[in-house]
Amino acid sequence: MAHINIDGVQNVQVSKPIPSEKTPLQQLEIMERYTETYQRFSGLGKARREVECLKVIFPTMFRRIEDADLIAGRLDFLPIGFGSVTSVGGVGHYCVFHKLRAFREQLDTEEQRARVDRLYDFWQEHDLKTLYCQDILGDATTGFFMQYEPPYMATARLSGMMLDYNKLVRLGVGGIVSQIDDRLDGSSDDERDFLAACRDAMLLFQDVIDREVELCEEAMEGASPARRRELALMRDDLEAVRTRPPETFHQALQLFWLYALCAGCINYGRLDIVLGPFLKRDLDSGVITDDDAYRYVKSLWTMIENRRTTVNGRVIVGGKGRPDVEAADLFARVCLRVCKDCRYVEPQFTLRFDSDTPQDIMDMAYDAIGAGATYPTLYNDDVEVPAVEYGMRVPREVAEQYVPFGCTEFVIQGKSVGTPNTLLNLLKILQISLNGGHDPYDGVDKSAGAQVRPLEELDSFEKVYDNYCRVLDRYMDKSVEDQYHSYEVMNREVSFLFTSILMDDCIERGRALLDGGVEILGGTNETYGNINTSDSLFAIKRLVFDEGRYTLKQVVDACNDDFQGPGEERLRLDLWHCDKYGNDLDEVDEMANRCYEYVAKGIRDRGIAKGMGYYLIVISNNQTNTDWGHMTAASPDGRRAGVYLNPANNPQGGAATGGPTAMLNSLAKFDARYHAGSVQNIKFTPRMFNHDRKKVKMLFDTYFRRGGCHLMVTVCDKGELEDAQMHPEKYPDLIVRVAGYSAVFVDLPKDVQDEVISRTLWDS
Amino acid sequence: MGDADKTITVMNLERFATHDGPGIRTAVFVKGCPLHCPWCANPETQSLGPVHFVDGERCVGCGECARSCPNGAISLVTEGGRRRPRVDPARCSGCRACERACLREAIVLQGHVMSVGEVLSVAERDRDYYEASGGGVTLSGGEPLMFADTALAFLREARVRGLDTAVETTGNVAFETLRAVEPYVDHFLYDVKSLDESSLRNVVGGSVKLNQEGLRWLAARCPDKINARVAVIPGFNFDDEELKGIIDWLWEIGVRRVNLLPYHTLGLGKYAKLGRDYACSRSSLRDEDLEELHEYALSRGMESKVGA
Question: How many independent structural domains does chain B possess?
Fold first, then answer.
């Protein structure tokens, strides 16, 4: 077996994390205890090992309560521990090696550092992600996340789990324990291991509640009378939900929050369904005031922000499939107020809407966007629900529970796994196909076994296209196998107990999430450079085959020279000025759609053949389009070597010149049924967005009626971003939508800033 | 030749135009204007001959454009210590060889000749947006009614295609043209710059008589189609008495809607690219500067709006 070292940055991290509360020595001891426990319980079943390991970190790693907190629950994580995603800790039993090395430097003595080294060496053989990488890495075709030389990356993670919090607030802790107990009766050995561990996890959760009670009491010492009353309420409500289901909004909020922390979930989903009825009841009966509701939600916003996951933190309101619409909308309105006032980069606040959404909610949403919050992001249920129904092959009522997580990928709340564990750089794949199977970036063979035709044989456009598809086919074949294998490896190592407990139908089936427990085993594949690829193909078609202005060899050679050869800059300009996607031009948009459908259907069909519930592409991007672009050669769309790839399915920066209607018309052309989310960014000046608000609303309304599925809107001034690059100190709270996430602009790396600036800013 | 086949020189085709008539519109800016307002925000539309923008920041003075020109229309001149091309419009044939020769894309011939049908086919792609917002197409310029036959062809063809039409005019056009196009126009965005014959003639080269005659006729015939537009220009008409006089006159002739347009400097960069001096104020007016006039128009019973 190849020994793979995946030491290095493993996730996009723009927001700066809050350091651990524990001293370095305490942290070291916890990690050692965790490691010993892992060793001791290996061989006693993965579920048992998991819960025993969880007991090492819970409730120990919970932090003290901050002065402004109105709900309890702050959690630290260490370079070694248990989790679901790389954004908080890592995946399964994890070690984040570069963080462990950085931690090592905080220690005082050689002896302590040697102890870290022993941990490092041990986890080199046991970190879940490393185990996965050992299976799938080995040649130049496949990279780990974030390794950008290959045209394809695969990783193990369990991103985007959105749990069934309705079940939690309906049954309460006690009710869930009873459900497990009922199921334990007459269970098989296999089932018993899993269910007993689930039961222990719920008891551990009660320990966490007890610890939070203590932390409330500690915080009360020396606090002002007003603060003591708040803390007393927190303490009482923690005690209230220790066993019984919550009865008030505050109790429900508290219970949900602590559970999400224990499960390592960083996307929260449709909280209006979960919390709305509690809110309504409390407001109706006078238990709380509007102001209380606002303060509680604001506290939740702060807690979510403080987890600093950069690309996650989804809170979703609105849309179809909500049993108590009135109560849910009440909650949505509070969130909209909080979102506008806070202007945090997280939560990624999301509004699902349809033709029935009340006008005042839409207006509040536009007001928040117009104020520069970048939130809410907008999802059009009239398009998305039928698309999900088809794409994921689920009944309408299940499709109604779709939720975008992370950068935009969809899952079904409480019912599906949809983690994006595979990623394709389509532009690199095109380049490999044009260079006899070699990547012009580094000259390495990355044909992945495809029969790549040499350039001389590509004497028609259809042959060029077919050659691209041949290479892409091989990578799609790899993708589905590696996606599936990530589940096999994760399942071999862990049960994801807290997640399993709130996912249909793990408890009833007596099986862990990835062990046949989850109702819908889906998955997603992030595709990058979609538009660079189709624009490149279009430019080849037009300039080489339709007009004969250049030979294919001239174009490919010029790209491989990064247009530095004689006459090649002229060639580049001709490529760049060739019609581009994003301007409502049928021929080039059809090329984009042809490429889109090929990869989208290719992935979808392979998922079905593999027996997965669904496996769909997502056209999102965090900053991977920028990072991957650095290691991608110049391309026939006129893009120079190393330049960022186009963001999501938006045009390359500078290519959209026909105005916002033209851009939106292009964006609306992809059939939403074949993807599980596609990020649509648009950027306006305040002058246009706020002064011409009525017309901008009509613009959006029409776009959505024409089949637009989604929009993420940034409102910023002309020159403002450029000025912020030069004078960051003046713009501490200037927020932009990068793609699937928002960020404080000045916290972004310069190259990502440049990519955001390059996008067309619509002004009046 | 049918209306759709007639050609026009389009200087800019702006989709999602929000300030050129009601709703979401596509504005078509055509070439040629009888006036020469020194504050014009689209100075490239004024002349009838070919006009090039030369971007001083991009141009390195290499002279490739001059060498490429088959007609010898480009010479290099030294301005402020830097060499830059100057185009003789009389010799330019509009072949765009200079554009292709310039790898820095510093020199660009403005405008494209398009058929009416081509232009309207682009505009029709946003039909859904027009229908949702009460928008349509706007013919603007320059002075779009300067060439009666193409303007008529455009407006008639737009009508055939069921598009709402607006015209932005200086009113300095032959009366017969106005009369000919009127049945095909849904909205006249009609400039009234001054009531003073000598100042209009001396500063912009326009005729008050022509301007007033046209508007009077429209006001009598189709008052609902009219939005009078009063651009407020410091050093020209930014004078309480004069502006109120314009409002009063509009009211008298039966115009009921007016847009008060605060002077802006958004066109300033274009003068540099044309190698022309800009003689007007370098600071824009704010909406608030027109508040009093706006109140006055309202008090007269006008439907007034600051901004387009």
Answer: 2
User: Does B153 lie in the same domain as B93?
Assistant: no
Residues B202 and B238 in one domain: yes
Measured between alpha carbons, how far is residue A296 from residues A76, A250, A613, A659, B85 in Å? Answer: 22, 7, 38, 42, 65
Mutate to test the interface with B, among A583, A584, A687, A695 (most CBs of B within 10 A): A695
Task: Report the residue of B15, B16, B26, B124 to disrupt the A interface, i.e. the one with the largest count of A CBs within 10 Å.
Answer: B16
Q: Provide the residue range defining the domain that includes B86.
A: 52-108
Q: Are residues B126 and B103 in the same domain?
A: no
Do B196 and B220 belong together in one domain?
Answer: yes
CA A689 to chain B, closest CA, distance in angstroms equals 11
Q: Does A688 touch chain B (CB under 8 A)?
A: yes
Torsion (CA) A595, A596, A597, A602 in degrees, nearest 10? 90
Which pLDDT value is given to residue A2?
46
Residue A764: which of B18, B105, B133 has the nearest Cβ?
A: B18
Residues of B in contact with A686 (CB under 8 A): none
B132 in the same domain as B104: no
pLDDT digits (tens, 9 = 90+) for A145-156: 889 999 999 999
ipTM of the complex: 0.93
Do B15 and A660 count as a contact with CB atoms less than 8 A apart? Answer: yes
CA B297/CA A156 separation, integer angstroms: 68
Torsion sign over Cα A315, A321, A323, A327: positive
Distance, CA of B23 to CA of B16 (rounded, Å)? 9
A698: contact with B, CB 8 A cutoff: yes
Nearest-neighbour CA in chain A from B129: distance (Å): 6
Tell me the two tokens of residue B89. 């419009």
Is B97 in the same domain as B118? no
Whether residue B34 sits in one domain with residue B87: no
pTM of the model: 0.95
Residue A314, pLDDT above cutoff 90:
yes
